[in-house]
Amino acid sequence: MVIRRAQQQDMERINELLMQVCLVHHRGRPDLFQYGQKKYTDAQLAEIIQDDNRPVFVAVDEKNKVLGYAFCIFKQFLNHNIMTDIKTLYIDDLCVDEALRGQHIGKTLYEEVLKFAKAEGCYNVTLNVWSCNESAQKFYESCGLKPQKVGMETIL
Fold first, then answer.
1. CA gyration radius for the chain?
2. What is the predicted pLDDT for the residue at 45?
3. What is the CATH code of the structural domain delimited by 2-142?
4. Which pTM value belongs to this model?
5. Domain residue extents for the chain
6. What mean pLDDT comes out for the span 125-135?
7. What is the pLDDT of residue 101?
8. HEC readout, the chain
């Protein structure tokens, strides 16, 4: 397995994985997430893959098949009234093909994201995880992540 930046030729497989993520979210919160949708249009995905401020990493096998991905975004508050100027790499989405989970692909992707963030001078790596996605929460905790903040709601 190799971790590399995503390329245009990876889009079809990334789209399949985006659909898997949407289904997990739909099952957990059908009041918020539509069935059978994906997060990005093909045009948006193509643009993101080319954007160095939104690096996308993929884990690929020896046949160059995408096994999983990590969508990232650089964030920084410059000259903010209360926030410091630290540079953060935010993991917007991390997914491993559901048929391949448990093979340490996600952990390897996450570790590569950490190396990349350090090399880019980031102070931290952050992400959000939906409360209904307990397996993802457990995975991130096993990687050493700790809660930074908690989002709360009341449904009216």
1. 16
2. 98
3. 3.40.630.30
4. 0.93
5. 2-142
6. 94
7. 92
8. CEEEECCHHHHHHHHHHHHHHHHHHHHHCCCCCCCCCCCCCHHHHHHHHHCCCCCEEEEECCCCCEEEEEEEEEEECCCCCCCCCCEEEEEEEEEECHHHCCCCHHHHHHHHHHHHHHHCCCCEEEECCCCCCHHHHHHHHHCCCCCCCCCCCCCC
